[in-house]
Design a protein that fits this description.
- By secondary structure, this protein is mainly α.
- It contains 19 helices and two strands.
- It has a two-stranded parallel ribbon with strand order 1-2.
- The longest helix is centred in the first third of the chain and has 39 residues.
Length: 329
């Protein structure tokens, strides 16, 4: 190719690139201006007078929310925005379990309200460290997880299911549970990931409920799809679980637990333990299952006895006025 022709081709090609990207950027800026104008300049009065449906408006204003809804089971079942949120745009309450989900999922909400998840808000207010925090510290810290119970008599299903898609398959992933069940004060996900179960899940990328071999959180704690995550938990964890009735080592002279714990009758304990063992027996021999649980029970009690010993020392120092500030003040 002659040098003159080459320069001509390069000039035309460069002009094409400049025009193409110029149009692309201009159209993008136009879309951004349109999007911004809708978000920033559309007052509530105009929204209330609009003839558009929620879906028509939010397809432009919040396309991510709209697309999640369209991909989810709710859209396939013809569930609209107003079915969950109501039609009063001036006073939009959160679509909580009691306000929205219970209308179609009464059994799931009933199961949730019996679970330890439903107690998480109350548990926050019983914690002295939480009470000492500022509102901002609470909102950016503990409330991010403990608000799953949304006050005393409600719940937030979207903490696990993820709004607005509400995918059951996504809610079954251990990573969803890891959002809250992690860190030094409740390291459940760390324990799972380091276990043979967690290693098997990491290799396959799918759990037992989705065709894999590895049990996940829901395999043991939400069998058959129950939303009561406490279904198979018997005496629970150290200092926060239950104490067996009649265990004099862990009960004071009045028959109350030394630590913050409930009291469980032996019959109920055996029933709950049998439920959990039944799941383990799907893959493991009975002798191994029983010995592992017995070892865990012994370790829990051994640890609680040490915590009780330390608690008594602190209480004695407090009675002698040797702790400042006084925790009772």
């Amino acid at each position: 190719m002659q040098p003159g022709n080459l320069r001509l081709v390069m000039t035309v090609f460069s002009a094409f690139i400049i025009i193409y990207f110029g149009l692309f950027i201009t159209s993008g800026e136009a879309r951004d201006r349109e999007f911004t104008s809708v978000v920033r300049t559309m007052p509530l009065e105009e929204i209330l007078k609009s003839k558009q449906t929620c879906e028509e408006c939010h397809a432009r204003v919040t396309p991510g929310v709209f697309q999640d809804h369209q991909r989810g089971v709710h859209a396939k079942e013809k569930v609209t925005c107003t079915d969950c949120h109501g039609s009063n745009h001036a006073g939009f309450p959160p679509a909580t379990a009691k306000r929205a989900c219970e209308k179609c999922h009464p059994q799931e909400v009933e199961e949730f309200m019996k679970s330890k998840h439903a107690q998480s808000w109350a548990n926050s207010w019983e914690n002295a460290r939480y009470q000492m925090q500022s509102p901002d510290m609470r909102d950016l810290g503990c409330n991010g997880c403990h608000n799953i119970s949304y006050g005393w008599q409600d719940a937030r299903c979207d903490y696990c299911h993820g709004k607005h898609k509400f995918s059951a398959a996504e809610a079954r992933q251990p990573a969803v549970c890891a959002t809250c069940h992690m860190g030094p004060d409740h390291p459940q996900i760390e324990a799972y990931e380091d276990s043979p179960h967690g290693k098997a899940f990491a290799r396959e990328g799918k759990g037992y409920e989705d065709g894999g071999k590895a049990p996940t959180c829901v395999t043991c704690h939400q069998p058959k799809g129950t939303h009561d995550v406490s279904t198979n938990i018997s005496i629970g964890g150290v200092s926060l679980g239950a104490v067996l009735a009649g265990d004099k080592d862990l009960l004071d002279q009045q028959g109350k637990p030394y630590l913050k714990a409930g009291i469980m009758e032996p019959e109920k304990f055996r029933a709950k333990r049998a439920q959990m063992e039944a799941i383990c027996l799907n893959c493991h021999p009975a002798a191994l299952v029983k010995e592992d649980f017995a070892r865990a029970d012994r370790l829990k009690k051994e640890t609680e006895l040490k915590v009780i010993q330390a608690k008594k020392i602190i209480e004695g120092l407090n009675r002698d006025g040797l702790i400042f500030p006084n925790p009772e003040q």
